[in-house]
Amino acid sequence: MATKTLDLVFLWHMHQPDYRDHGAAGIGASQATHSGGLFSGRRPSFWSAGFLRGSGGTVQETAGKFVLPWVYLHAIKDYVDMAAHLERHPQVRCVVNFVPVLLDQIEDYARQFASGQFRDPLLRILATPDLENIGEEDRRLLLGSCFSCNFTTMLACFPHYKRLHDVYLLVGQNGEAAHQYLSSSSFSDLVTWYHLAWTGETERRRDPLLAKLMSQGQGFTARDRRQLLASIGEAITGLIPRWRVLAARGQVELSSTPQTHPLSPLMLDFHAARESLPDAPLPAHAAYPGGRSRVISHIDSARTSHAKRFGAPPVGMWPAEGRCPRNLSSFWRAPVATGLPVAKGCCRAASLPAASPTRVPPITHGGWRRHRD
Question: pLDDT tens across 77-93, in order?
Answer without folding.
Answer: 999 999 999 999 999 99
